[in-house]
Design goal:
The chain is an all-alpha fold. The chain has one domain. Helix content is 86%, strand content 0%. The longest helix has 32 residues. It starts with a helix and ends with a helix.
């Protein structure tokens, strides 16, 4: 996937609207899928699947909006706005995971290790995507 093509695509206002809608749909769909998986793994350790789904789904709206705004501000070369929106994504991204850790009791170490590995991989993926978009934007200048 060429990040430069995506960044050029998102310079058009209509493309931005379409891109944001697609992003919201992807984030919310992932929230539903993730909630089903988490409920199956952690319900036996005390996690309330309904509360988890509510926290994940609601934080996904915040995450989708803040991350989209951060990217668009970055494309517009508004670094301060991009940073503030980027910072807003962090608690929204990790809030459901904090609930898992807080509410689950007597979870086997192997389950926590698997959970931590998945969380680390997803965090690394987000960081790599951000660094690539930053590098592509510099190369496009």
């Amino acid at each position: 996937m060429d990040i430069r093509k995506i960044l050029r695509f998102l310079e058009d206002i209509e493309a931005r609207r379409k891109g944001v809608k697609i992003w919201f749909a992807l984030v919310l769909a992932w929230s539903i899928i993730r909630s089903i998986i988490i409920a199956r793994v952690f319900h036996k350790y005390g996690l309330n699947p309904t509360i988890y789904f509510a926290s994940d789904f609601l934080s996904s709206f915040i995450y989708a909006h803040a991350s989209a705004q951060s990217l668009l501000a970055y494309i517009d070369k508004n670094k301060v706005r991009a940073i503030w929106w980027g910072l807003a994504t962090i608690p929204a991204f990790y809030a459901p995971d904090i609930y898992i850790i807080y509410s689950s009791k007597q979870v086997p170490t192997s389950t926590y290790i698997g959970f931590a590995v998945i969380l680390a991989v997803m965090s690394a993926f987000a960081l790599v995507q951000w660094l690539e978009s930053k590098k592509s934007k510099k190369g496009a200048r």
